Amino acid sequence: MKNVKEQAQKIIDTTHGNICNRCLGRNFYPQVSGNDNHERGAYLKDILNTAEEIPEKGEACYVCGDIFRELEDILERIINTIHDSGVEFETFLVGCRLPPEILEKEKKIQNEIGSENDSLKKEINRELGKELELRLEKEVDFDNPNLVIMMDFANNQVDLQINPLFIEGRYRKLIRGIPQTRWPCRKCRGKGCKKCDFTGKMYPESVEELMAETVLKATEGQESKFHGAGREDIDVRMLGRGRPFVLEIKEPKIRELNLEELTSKINEYCQGKVEVLDLKMVSKDRRSGIKASSTETYKIYRALVELDQETDEEKLNALNSLNIIKQRTPIRVSHRRADKIRTREVKEIQVKMLDSSHLELVVNCEGGLYIKELISGDEDRTQPSVTSLLGINAKCVELDVLEVNI
Ligand SMILES: [Zn+2]
Ligand SMILES: [Zn+2]
């Protein structure tokens, strides 16, 4: 205890007694008991007073400049800022930014007595958090807060950061010709030029934009980001139970959503093009979960195949041997994918002859198998293929995804 007294006296001397109870007490956590640093400081001043005279605190606290006296005003400012912003939230986290000179003074005192168990910043955050929980009737969440409140003492302002919300669901793409996500114009890279009719895009619509339009309106969000469990080509439909996705909405003001109503509104807006189903609110971890490694998945495709010579039912039996496929990166994607040979499994294939030169195939296969190339053979880069087994050039003229499992 003697040591504590000496150290406390040292702080009193350095600051000429201009130190508030909290800033004094904070240096003696946890060795001096008390409910908070204010109590610790008051106790220390008390025992020092009985030993010898300590100067009356004449000026503002050397360390914090009496910041805790302004706490009531600060709380009011924060609450008003939140109300004015109109943001909806259930959980929050509050932090503060202190001017460098305050941090330097705190460091100086800490160095003198070698204690760094608590800090002014932590104490302010604690006090603000406690009071805001009570007054706003919301909960502090350290990991995934809806709203981050930053009290910036350095610039004397309150900053609000609204964290994104995440909606998981499945989509069906009912028509061909729409990309999954917004595709910036190749020529102007999104700035807008003659070629893209000053839209900055290769295609006027995408699955993402079609569904986000309605969700952005409902949430009053600023921007959307689409995370799909893989993607289909522009000319491929996505049918069946749909493809899983997570839609991220940045800076949403509204979080309380009636998902049934939202589903109807999206589907009304995207009518005949895109349909969403099974919407649910999820946490941000699902963003990466949805992009699970493609080999753990399986997919079912329906393909319409055109042959450049006539064939008959008997020859088609050869297709039942399609099983382990060695597939070198297809020519059409080789500019953006590493050139390597992948092994993928065809689990099941159903073959239906439509006429002597047209087939319908339903292929159940491992994720990551390129179906168009499974059919054409891609100049022997895919082996075996429909082309190699029939000895007739085969081409995929229509493709639908019927099921995606992750
Ligand atoms: Zn102080
Ligand atoms: Zn352009």
Automatic annotation (TrEMBL):
Positions with a binding annotation for substrate: 301, 370
Gene designation per UniProt: pus10
GO biological process terms held by the UniProt record: tRNA pseudouridine synthesis
Main EC class the enzyme belongs to: isomerase
UniProt xrefs under InterPro entries: PsdUridine_synth_cat_dom_sf, Pus10, Pus10-like, Pus10-like_C, Pus10_THUMP_arc, THUMP_dom
One GO MF term attached to the UniProt entry: tRNA pseudouridine(55) synthase activity
Keywords: Isomerase, RNA-binding, tRNA processing
The protein's name in its UniProt record: tRNA pseudouridine synthase Pus10
UniProt keyword Cytoplasm present: no
Family statement drawn from the similarity comment of this UniProt entry: Belongs to the pseudouridine synthase Pus10 family.
Residues of the THUMP domain: 42-164
Enzyme Commission (EC) number: 5.4.99.25
Record SUPFAM superfamilies: Pseudouridine synthase
Annotated catalytic residues: 233
PROSITE patterns per UniProt: THUMP
One Pfam family it belongs to: Pus10_THUMP_arc
Reactions that this protein is recorded to catalyse: uridine(55) in tRNA = pseudouridine(55) in tRNA; uridine(54) in tRNA = pseudouridine(54) in tRNA
Listed HAMAP family: Pus10_arch
Role noted for this protein: Responsible for synthesis of pseudouridine from uracil-54 and uracil-55 in the psi GC loop of transfer RNAs.
